Amino acid sequence: MARIALILVPLVAWEVCSRLGLINGFLFPAPSAILNKLWVQSGPNGNPPYAILWHVADSMLRLLSGLSLAVIIGTLLGVGLGMSQRARLVFQPIISILMPVPTLAWTPVLLLVMGIDNRTTILVVFLAAVFEMIYIVASGIEMLNVKMLWVAWSMGASRRQVFWRVIIPGIFPCLITGTRLGTGYAWRALIAAEMLAASSYGLGFMIYDASEYMNIGVIYGGVMMIAALGYLLENVLVGKIEAATIEKWGVLNER
């Protein structure tokens, strides 16, 4: 209840101030007017019809595509770095150099190479999450009890069996943590990239397009949807996976 109150109280104050004219109603329209605008745009009377649904669907498709690639490739590369000292010596400096570079800095280069396309935004999402996944998975491998590997190898386990039955379960908490952090980074990078690289739909494109026509209600509505969807993705979706796996297995430290 306290969390809900922390959100509702500012919204109610905003609504009252906007309706009483205490703040600029054009620059700060009432939340009820913003929600009504979103409701209209999400239905058959929107311009175009069901516009909000198309924007959300395109953003989610780009996010899940890029994030899935980042989780798969980041896990494989992270395991490789964690298992091989030679690979760490070669690639860790490169990752350390590239990791602090803001993902949006790559967008102009990607636009020149790939053009305004879904591939550009998906690649931006991938870059936003993959380095975090590599770093966290490699760190998880380094912390893995080496005796577990020795036991598996001494019992004749193949490399594939060791990977799927020892390494992946052993680093699963790191995978969940990396996915949670990567989702947050990827979501923010996607919205920014859509403002530059999306050709038609997407929440970032919707906000940028609305700013061209001074459609303030749609801009605020887009920001609210980005915040709500980001929370659901990072805390509810990943949290459900966490609760169904590592919390259930008792391998996650209590917060």
**Coarse shape:** elongated
Structural class: mainly alpha
CATH class: Mainly Alpha
Q: Looking at CATH, which topology would you report?
A: MetI-like fold
CATH superfamily: MetI-like
Radius of gyration: 22 Å
Number of beta strands: 0
Overall tally of domains = 1
Please outline the major beta sheet: none
Number of helices: 12
Elements, N to C (H/E):
HHHHHHHHHHHH
Low-confidence stretches: none
CATH architecture: Orthogonal Bundle
Write the layout of secondary structure elements.
Elements: H1 2-19, H2 31-41, H3 51-83, H4 85-98, H5 107-114, H6 118-143, H7 146-154, H8 159-170, H9 172-197, H10 203-212, H11 216-244, H12 246-249
Family: Belongs to the binding-protein-dependent transport system permease family.
InterPro entries: MetI-like, MetI-like_sf
Organism: Bradyrhizobium zhengyangense
Describe the structure.
The mean pLDDT is 84. The relative contact order is 0.12. Helix content is 78%, strand content 0%. It has one domain: MetI-like fold. The protein is mainly α and 255 residues long. The longest helix has 33 residues, at 51-83. Helix 10 (203-212) runs antiparallel to helix 11 (216-244). The protein contains twelve helices and no strands. It is found in: Cell membrane. This is ABC transporter permease.
